[in-house]
Amino acid sequence: MARNGFAEFLVARRAELRPADIGMPAGGRRRTPGLRREEVAVRAGVSADYLARLEQGRDTNPSMSVVDALADALLLAGAQRDHFTMLALTSGNEYRCPGSESPDEQLADSMRTILRALQPTPALVVGRRFDVLGWNPAWADFAAPLGLFDEADRPNLAWYIFIHPAAQRVLRDWAGAADHFVAALNRAKVRWPADDTLREMITALQRSPEFAERWKPHRLGDDRSGVLAFDHPVHGQIDVPFETLDSDRDQSVMIWLTDKTAAQAPGLRLVEPRAVNE
């Protein structure tokens, strides 16, 4: 039976911890890194056989008391603990989650209005798989020289980062951007566990060695904001802070705050107003 997200997290986190992390002597040599299954089971107050069933995806309905005990045993706190609990609630029940199917995403009228209002600040709207569903003229003029419109009428940010040959050339901190989108896709996979198109996209991206190396079921991070550092073909070196605002339509507005870097990039000029694209 294939592992679900909760099972993958359990296995990965157990491998990540060391005996010293839980106050145990390192002891002799271990066949595999991390804690033994029996050690985690004892700390959580469950049997090793039950933990094995959870890790193998054969049991997908642990009680919340078991989930809490495992989170304590694995030293999970904050965002990681929340992520772990969400995986426990959704893994094995993906097709019962409302709104989890794979929609044909279209730009909402309210999002189109927001994009117009934000002009001349570059802004775009992304769907749950990071397809760019819409953008304003300022973002289009900034993004086009980067190659974001080279291969599709509807760019995909994650695909651009890992597949487009220009990405590693124009992003000075390509590794940081790659980590950001791995975290963002991980968050999306948990939020929409039955989205087949999203899962297929992640599977396709795993053919990229750079993506496969980074993809871990428990990789978390602040994927709502950050800084994109460009060697821009037109504007030269420019660091662009960005913020992401969610909506209740499974669509997010990303704002690229180029105005904050205008002093460092005096040649940056936003475009004249015109109709919002989609």
Overview of this protein structure:
InterPro entries: Cro/C1-type_HTH (IPR001387), Lambda_DNA-bd_dom_sf (IPR010982), MLTR_LBD (IPR041413). Pfam families: HTH_31 (PF13560), MLTR_LBD (PF17765). Residues 34-74 form the HTH cro/C1-type domain. It comes from Nocardia aurea. This is Helix-turn-helix transcriptional regulator. It is a single chain. This protein has 278 residues and is of the alpha+beta class. It folds into two domains: 5-92, lambda repressor-like DNA-binding domains (434 Repressor (Amino-terminal Domain), Orthogonal Bundle), CATH 1.10.260.40; 109-261, Beta-Lactamase, CATH 3.30.450. It is built from twelve helices and five strands. It has helices at 5-16, 37-44, 48-55, 64-73, 78-90, 109-118, 137-143, 157-163, 167-170, 174-191, 196-205, 209-214, and strands at residues 123-126, 132-135, 225-232, 236-246, 252-256. Strands 2-1-5-4-3 form a five-stranded antiparallel beta sheet, sandwiched between helices. A hairpin with a 5-residue loop joins strand 1 and strand 2. The two termini are 41 Å apart. Residues 262-275 have low confidence and may be disordered.
Number of domains in the coordinates? 2
- Continuous helix count: 12
| End-to-end gap | 41 Å
Give the overall average pLDDT.
84
By helix and strand content, what is the structural category?
alpha+beta
InterPro entries: Cro/C1-type_HTH (IPR001387), Lambda_DNA-bd_dom_sf (IPR010982), MLTR_LBD (IPR041413)
Protein name: Helix-turn-helix transcriptional regulator
Pfam families: HTH_31 (PF13560), MLTR_LBD (PF17765)
